[in-house]
Amino acid sequence: MSRREDEKPEDGADAAEPATPDFDKIAQNMGRLLEEYGKVTAAYLKPIERGEAKSGQADEVSDMVKTIGRVAERWVTDPRKIMEAQTSITADFLSLWSATLKRASGEEAKPVVEPDKRDARFADPDWSSHPMFDFVKQAYLIGSRWAESMVDKAEDLDPHTREKARFYVKQIASALSPSNFVATNPELLRETLQQNGENLVRGMKMLAEDIEAGGGELKIRQSDGRAFEVGVNIATTPGKVIYRDEIMELIQYAPATEQVLKRPLLIVPPWINKFYILDLNPEKSFIRWCVAQGLTVFCISWVNPDERHAAKDFESYMREGIFAALDAIEQATGEKRVSAIGYCVGGTLLGVTLAYMAAMKDKRIDSATFFTTQVDFSKAGELSVFVDEDQIRSVEEQMAKSGYLDGARMAGAFNMLRPNDLIWSYAINNYLKGKAPTAFDLLYWNSDSTRMPAANHSFYLRNCYLENKLAKGEMRIAGKTLDLKAVTIPVFNLATREDHIAPAQSVFIGSQCFGGPVDYVVAGSGHIAGVVNPPSKVKYQYWTGGAPEGNYGDWIARASEHAGSWWPHWFKWVEEQAPKRVAAREPGAGKLPALEDAPGTYVRTKV
């Protein structure tokens, strides 16, 4: 689970007027640049010299080379196909050369190839108006699209290898974009000359700092981390921690109404990120909004695990997480039954728990809501490129050394799903323009990554992504074989239309696994912005169409579109399940005393 992109802050810098370069200053700054480069090298080498270098990158590069090599094998075995491929790209380059010569002689010439309208890399006017930069741009687009077509047209390639090859080609093409280099990017060239190279010196300084912060690996800053402090100006909804164990803290939020719904609400967030994505600030906070509607809200805040948690598996997270929370809620409120929400992998855990509870005749969860959650992984989306036997074994070997998966690994995987937006745009802004990123709460959260316990993560990768055991009815937890059809409580299943992590089609298929009534809803935007979409903003729409029957394409075609946030629609659904209201409950006033103020201790632990 990672951030959604549509809320990316604007650069905010206006183009400066052309200025005559000061060559003395440029020379001085090149000297300073070399000094800063020495610091970059030192930051990279320091962990290696201390024997603290992080492992895993060599395996990833090896897998990339192996995968692209398999594509190449399919082409070299057929000389005729190689000739066709060479002819195709040669024809495009000849057309480009001809068009460039026409422009050079003052004639009009249509572009041979144009970037996608949403591709912000080539937004500067000089990419089209200046013949040299236009040639460089089009040459890059021809080459990168040709490489993509080579993967698509390779014969006798198994689907997983083809998807991996597409993914790796996208990473290589994104890295080699001319927009990433000063000499081939007109905007960067202008800025460098206008600033006499000061931008590169500042950028190199930030690069050294970010490699230092990443322990020898580059950790690209996406937001000004100094601008936020958890519990001060982010994650500020009032509440108390009322329970704590080795895996989680349970937060009960203070009421904002005199009367509340009798049935409490338990939120199970993902443990691959921190829970406060649902409590970024008062305007965006789903938790604060729920409290304002008259819900008694409890939220799990997962521990940021270390080597002590290596053996904590899915069953541990079920028992010490969800079950412990249910027990605590009963002590705090006297209520034996709750409504529950699961977000992303927290939703997968909730689905597993519901199936286990059905097998045990445990009825403490009366209705369930899933946010961008997969329980069927047959159409798992782009993250599935990271999952096969070889890659899982490599990850398990890494985790065996420390007891956990480093949070930077998962954060990097999410960023690689959209490299131009989440990697290279920040690399250009930070290290080539020399501009510190702006303060942005969503990106601060995105960089506040967490680790994964070895046993838990291995179970998740193998049982869900690799073998899809939950949907097949083959997953076993605590000696029970789980059957989602036995889950007959009402389910509200939210997908988001542009989700790269839990695709709407995958969520739709998973909705059909449950045995009770399912209200399937699709929100506009992606994995984060589609969920964090408060009614006050009216930024995205949502679609309703009842039960997830048939196939996703037909369902979305006949669904009704609604402007604005889906939150009120969901609350109406929750309220209809149990409309009775009682006097508001204060955290710590029940049998469980308050341990500390929200957001607690676990959420503050950094990687």
UniProtKB/TrEMBL annotation:
PANTHER family: POLY(3-HYDROXYALKANOATE) POLYMERASE SUBUNIT PHAC, POLY-3-HYDROXYBUTYRATE SYNTHASE. It is found in: Cytoplasm. SUPFAM superfamilies: alpha/beta-Hydrolases. GO terms for biological process: poly-hydroxybutyrate biosynthetic process. Residues 1-11 have a biased composition (Basic and acidic residues). This is Polyhydroxyalkanoate synthase. InterPro entries: AB_hydrolase_1, AB_hydrolase_fold, PHA/PHB_synthase, PHA_synth_I, PhaC_N. Its main location: cytoplasm. GO terms for molecular function: acyltransferase activity. GO terms for cellular component: cytoplasm. Residues 1-23 are annotated as: Disordered. Gene3D superfamilies: alpha/beta hydrolase. Keywords: Acyltransferase, Cytoplasm, Transferase. Residues 118-290 form the Poly-beta-hydroxybutyrate polymerase N-terminal domain. Residues 293-532 form the AB hydrolase-1 domain. It comes from Bosea lathyri.
